[in-house]
Amino acid sequence: MRPSSANSLAGKICLVTGAAGGIGLAAAQALASVGARLMLSDVDAARLDGVVTDFRALGLDVHGMHCDVTDPASVQALIAATLAAYDRLDCAVNNAGIETRNAKLAEHDDAEFDRAIAVNLKGAYLCMKHELKQMLAQGGGVIVNVASVAGLGGAPTLAGYAASKHGVLGLTRSAAIEYATRGIRVNAVCPSYTNTAMVQRMLADKPSLRAALVNASPMKRLGEPEEIGLAIAWLCSDESSFVNGQGLALDGGLTAW
Ligand SMILES: NC(=O)c1ccc[n+]([C@@H]2O[C@H](COP(=O)([O-])OP(=O)(O)OC[C@H]3O[C@@H](n4cnc5c(N)ncnc54)[C@H](O)[C@@H]3O)[C@@H](O)[C@H]2O)c1
What we know:
Blueprint: E1 13-16, H1 22-33, E2 37-42, H2 45-57, E3 62-66, H3 72-86, E4 91-94, H4 110-138, E5 141-146, H5 159-178, E6 184-191, H6 197-205, H7 209-216, H8 225-236, E7 247-250
Parallel strand pairs: 1-2, 1-4, 2-3, 4-5, 5-6, 6-7
The structure holds nicotinamide-adenine-dinucleotide.
């Protein structure tokens, strides 16, 4: 029998992108609550500074670094800053992402499509690439990408967003197989609609959506960011040591229909 690894994240160095709010912040809180040491990043430097200040006020070991995940140099600088602060990178949560406005594909805005692919898909690719280089050099690590149920199936009126998240699962599964013998696990979480600023914006854009979403859910509610953060921390931990290459639906049963 293996000894319990319930606190396997204590002292581990964990990087979270898009950590200034929502699911990224909840993941950072879940990781910190079991003793992880954090490198938090976001494109919104002011909100990130506030989060870092709050974490430090609680006595937590945390650094913050501005990063735009669409910019290769910015991503490289983030990994370099992580190593400068902590010498290694045990876990990476690639969470930074944006939504697209509701529109059927024929009415999709081209610039918005490009932006969703740049942030959600290329951003995840760039982060994974540089995280993997470090994890290979140090002999292991864990990556958790934040995809979506829109990466598991069609998402009417969100085709560009769905395409970007399907791509994130393609990256996840491919890298999981490529590095499975190198001590590296790569998984994704696939949340359904979760109560964050992103969803508040989407609901403001289309108020009738809330009732439709709640009705479609077997649990008759949206997810809460804390519920997603806890699952991300579990995937980062040794408790999930045989989970690799998965897109874990966190959806209250939505995809069980
Ligand atoms: N909220 C949901 O219902 C839901 C469902 C499924 C998946 N997701 C995914 O979860 C992730 C987090 O979303 P959220 O709901 O917390 O949204 P959010 O808007 O609350 O947070 C997203 C964060 O990403 C940051 N960000 C945006 N562009 C960035 C960039 N170029 N570089 C670095 N950071 C950037 C934002 O500043 C923000 O802090 C996203 O990838 C999103 O697609 C959300």
